[in-house]
């Protein structure tokens, strides 16, 4: 399933600036393997200029389709290809997760890696009931990514971030990671954004849950 998003053109070059309509681009995230023809269709018919492929599963393992999706999207003429990483808390160390993800996906195939912060129901990978522990683990993931010279961002919603990390956890914002937030209001605008997790403005909005 793909979900439509609004992305600031400036955030594509890692400038954390809020988008204005003239600088907005459409794209989406992908969790299944798509062919080059499918990506070409989304580019030509839906106007996609970017895509974000899942590269790491919630159960603590790489997504073998992540690398292929980025390659197919680029072959279709989609200019910007990112990946998203669904963290596993408890079963696999932060360092190992990041090394496995990058080793399989290939740094040359993506611009940014986004951490998908939402409820994880996979056995052995659920977030802790201790929010401070979750926040510390998030910091470990970020530091591991920094050690691999990755450009990173956070995907979450105000509700999910508060429930998992806690309102006082600013580890992503304090590390200057851009924010991709979710609000399925079918409105490709940042006008609804409310500050959370230390972020005062977003870079990407998830505004539709299917295309």
From TrEMBL:
PROSITE patterns noted in UniProt: GLYCOSYL_HYDROL_F25_2
GO biological process, one term: cell wall macromolecule catabolic process
SUPFAM superfamilies from the UniProt entry: (Trans)glycosidases (SSF51445)
InterPro entries named among the record's database cross-references: GH, GH25_Enzymes, Glyco_hydro_25
Keywords in alphabetical order: Signal
Gene3D superfamilies per UniProt: Glycosidases (3.20.20.80)
Alphabetized GO MF terms: lysozyme activity
Signal peptide (from-to): 1-24
Family label: Belongs to the glycosyl hydrolase 25 family.
Protein name: Lysozyme
Organism whose genome encodes this protein: Neobodo designis
């Amino acid at each position: 399933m793909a979900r439509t998003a609004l992305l600031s053109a400036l955030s594509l070059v890692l400038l954390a600036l809020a988008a204005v309509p003239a600088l907005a681009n459409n794209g989406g995230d992908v969790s299944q393997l798509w062919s080059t023809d499918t990506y070409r269709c989304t580019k030509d018919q839906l106007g996609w200029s970017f895509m974000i492929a899942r590269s790491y599963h919630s159960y603590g393992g790489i997504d073998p389709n992540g690398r292929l999706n980025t390659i197919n999207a680029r072959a279709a003429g989609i200019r910007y290809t990112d990946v998203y990483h669904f963290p596993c808390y408890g079963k696999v160390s932060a360092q190992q997760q990041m090394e496995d993800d990058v080793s399989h996906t290939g740094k040359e195939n993506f611009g940014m890696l986004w951490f998908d912060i939402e409820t994880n129901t996979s056995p052995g990978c659920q977030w802790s009931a201790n929010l401070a522990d979750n926040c510390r683990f998030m910091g470990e993931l970020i530091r591991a990514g920094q050690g691999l010279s990755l450009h990173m961002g956070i995907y979450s919603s105000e509700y999910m971030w508060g429930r998992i990390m806690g309102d006082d956890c600013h580890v992503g914002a304090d590390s200057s990671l851009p924010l991709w937030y979710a609000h399925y209001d079918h409105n490709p605008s940042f006008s609804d954004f409310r500050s959370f997790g230390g972020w005062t403005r977003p870079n990407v909005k998830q505004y539709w849950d299917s295309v």
